[in-house]
Amino acid sequence: MQKPNAIAADAITAGAQPPARSWLSKALEGRNTLGGLFMLPAAAVLLIFLTYPLALGVWLGFTDTTIGRPGQFIGLENYEALWDDTVFWLAVFNTLLYTSVASVFKFALGLWLALLLNERLPFKAFIRAIVLLPWVVPTVLSAIAFWWIYDAQFSIISWALIQIGLIDAPINFLGDATNARASVIAANVWRGIPFVAITLLAGLQTIPQSLYEAATLDGASSWQRFRYITLPMLTPIIAVVMTFSVLFTFTDFQLIYVLTRGGPVNATHLMATLSFQRAIPGGQLGEGAAIAVAMIPFLLSAILFSYFGLQRRRWQQGGRDA
Amino acid sequence: MASVDIRRVTKQFGSHPVIHGVDIAIADHEFVVLVGPSGCGKSTLLRMIAGLEQISGGEIVIGGRVVNDVQPKERDIAMVFQNYALYPHMTVHDNMAFSMKLRGAPQAEITERVNKAADILALTPLLQRYPRQLSGGQRQRVAMGRAIVRDPQVFLFDEPLSNLDAKLRVAMRTEIKALHQRLRTTSIYVTHDQVEAMSMADRIVLMRDGVVEQIGSPLELYDHPANVFAAGFIGSPAMNFLPGMLRRAGNELHVETARGIRLPLPSNAGGTDGQKVIYGVRPEHLSLGGEGIPATVAVVEPTGADTFVYSEVGGVPVCATFSERHAFEPGKQIVLKPQLETVHLFDEASGVAIRNA
User: Fold this and answer.
1) Which of B232, B267, B282 is the last residue of a domain?
2) Do the beta carbons of residue B277 and residue B348 sit within 8 Å?
3) Which of A266, A292, B19, B256 could make an SS bond with B210 (beta carbons 3.0 to 4.6 A apart)?
């Protein structure tokens, strides 16, 4: 019973004698000062863990640093060397091939899967959880599984095809240049589909059912409903998902490193794996960094592409919410 | 344009029946309003006519053709949705042209029909806007424009005004009615608002719990409600109900409430002596009189044109509306005199109206 009285008494004293405010308390109440103060920890984390390594990487690309020996600034020498390096250009080609083919498949299959999952299905929640699995499993683990699936002797695919009688000898999945490229792309597509499918599914579920009903009454077939309702309304989300998918694929490392290490004869070397190989096992930190930096223009253009793709379309703008 | 016949139609969701054998015959050019409280099955019935829901039993006939197994797009109907369902990524013009574009109509015809509909609905300056750039009332008109362009056999409206503010709702109500008078297209309109139903309908279909309670013109429902539910649903403020016992002694006829208050009846009232009844009288049919029902004033609500007086008659709340201005004070005794010819009697057990003898 004492408390309310005590609080009331406090309030009265506080009201009677406003405490003198120091410059510090005034500054702390200012929006900018306090805001800046609160941002400091985040800014420090970003500086230490993001800006510093990135800047260091760019700097290393301009030096001839090797492991154990601090290098000298050598200007664009690393890049000049790469310009005449056929393995580097093969890696660029591989990366572009890997990214474009895998992204197209991930988009097509992911959208298809999302559309299926958006239908009324028995055990819907269960199936959706299963679909996420490839994405949840650590990449190295799934890569090792694929390594077995693609094994020259014990491949289950070869075994099944031999049992059916379609082939006589096991397929050389990872030993042949074309087979190896197709194999790593297939593994990447398998791993990347859930992200695309689940995100697009979320997008599909934001489209009001009544739009489909209105379109049905307007005489739209199911293909026309997809073409004129689903696709245009999904475009903004497709732009986000595919940007991220392209960035993930372009910088892929783990899958290749476990499956092929860039082989056979560099046929599956991506820029990321080549950069690692030159820098760490090869010891040429400067050159490796230069390869990594060479990825930046590609990634930047992908981001710019999505920036324009993501801009709010005219129909999304304007007045109030629907 | 066409007639619509709904014959013994039932609907079940799983094992849960929601519509229990509904019969409604809608004539060509008619404007019929399906009205009832939420969950009465009116929207489901409308969606069954549209083809958006399967028909569990019975049949629906549009223009002489049984449409139970006809695809929605083959039924030649247009529907205006509660949330308008405008395609957000299409301009007003494209929204209205969509159905014709799908049908592969020639561009000249599309332009002509869209312009004509836009003209009717005063949408011409908005044709290049997107739905997001429109106000609620404008969106509502676009949704109707989309239906008009189709020139369908039947218009279906699914609570089209419930997302609008009160003032706009009244304006759009008039607009829809004027539109129907101009186009004469058979229209089926679903609402939960009895004022909308009364003011727009040629005929009202009053539904409750998947059953039709009464079908009739607005004034038929108002003047001769078939049962307590219809009497209470139509009219605002709602009809007053006073339970009591019918007393008939020679020419003397009245209803006596549990607390012994005598409620006057016309001399031709039906019912038998001692029958348990509900005495119904509308607020607007009560006046201040020298003799009548004694009541205690509880709350007075002046609205300008009318004054609503909430009072108590033997423990039962009774509302009366007066267009003339009296001085009322809460707690005071007044005497309410019902217009005898407008008094309704209902059997208490069944709720069914007791007709005059």
Assistant:
1) B232
2) yes
3) B19
Query: Are residues B324 and B262 part of one domain?
Result: yes
ipTM: 0.84
Same domain, B253 and B114: no
Contact of B179 with B168, CB cutoff 8 Å:
no
> Using CA atoms, how far apart are residues A101 and B129, in angstroms rounded to an integer?
39
Q: Max alpha carbon distance in chain A (Å)?
A: 97
Interface check B144 vs A, CB under 8 A: no
Question: Within this chain, do residues B175 and B303 fall inside the same structural domain, yes or no?
Answer: no
Reference B125, options B108, B138, B136; nearest CA is B138
Q: Are residues B150 and B181 in the same domain?
A: yes
Read off the amino acid at residue B80: V
**Residue B192 covered by a domain:** yes
Which of B216, B232, B248 finishes a domain?
B232
Q: Is B88 in contact with A322 (Cβ distance < 8 A)?
A: yes
Do residues B171 and B274 share a domain? Answer: no
Structure tokens at B330: 């809460």
B325 phi, psi to nearest 5 deg: -100, 120
Do residue B81 and residue A318 have CB atoms under 8 angstroms apart?
Answer: no
From A214, A233, A319, residue closest to B89, measured CB to CB: A233
Is B201 at the interface with chain A, CB within 8 A? no
- What is the distance in angstroms between the Cα of B310 and the nearest Cα belonging to chain A? 40
In chain B, what residues touch A213 (CB-CB under 8 Å)? 50, 52, 79, 81, 85
Question: Across the interface, which of B72, B88, B103 has its CB nearest the CB of A217?
Answer: B72
User: What are the pLDDT tens digits along chain A (322 aa)?
Assistant: 444 444 444 444 444 555 667 777 777 777 788 888 889 999 999 999 999 999 999 999 999 888 888 888 888 888 998 999 999 999 999 999 999 999 999 999 999 999 988 888 788 888 888 888 888 888 888 888 888 888 888 888 888 888 888 888 888 888 888 889 999 999 999 999 999 999 999 999 999 999 999 999 998 999 999 999 999 899 888 888 988 999 999 999 988 988 888 878 888 999 999 999 998 898 889 999 999 999 999 999 988 887 777 666 666 654 444 3
Same domain, B195 and B254: no
Report the residue of chain A nearest B128, measured CA to CA: A315
A316–B102 C-beta distance less than 8 A: no
**Domains annotated on chain A, with CATH:** 86-311 (1.10.3720.10)
Q: Which residues of A touch B52 (CB under 8 A)?
A: 213, 216-217
Shortest CA distance to B125 belongs to which of B133, B165, B98, B87?
Answer: B133
The CATH number given to whatever domain includes residue B56 is: 3.40.50.300
Distance from CA of B96 to the nearest CA of A (A): 10
Question: What residues 99-118 of chain B have any CB closer than 8 A to a CB of chain A?
Answer: 99, 102-103
Is there a contact between B100 and B176 (Cβ–Cβ < 8 Å)?
A: no
Domain span including residue B130: 4-232
Cβ contacts (< 8 Å) between A206 and chain B: which residues?
A: none
Are residues B87 and A229, on separate chains, in Cβ contact within 8 Å? yes
User: How far, in Å, are A7, A8, A12, B189 from residue A4 at the CA level?
Assistant: 5, 6, 12, 59
Residue B310 and residue B169 share a domain: no
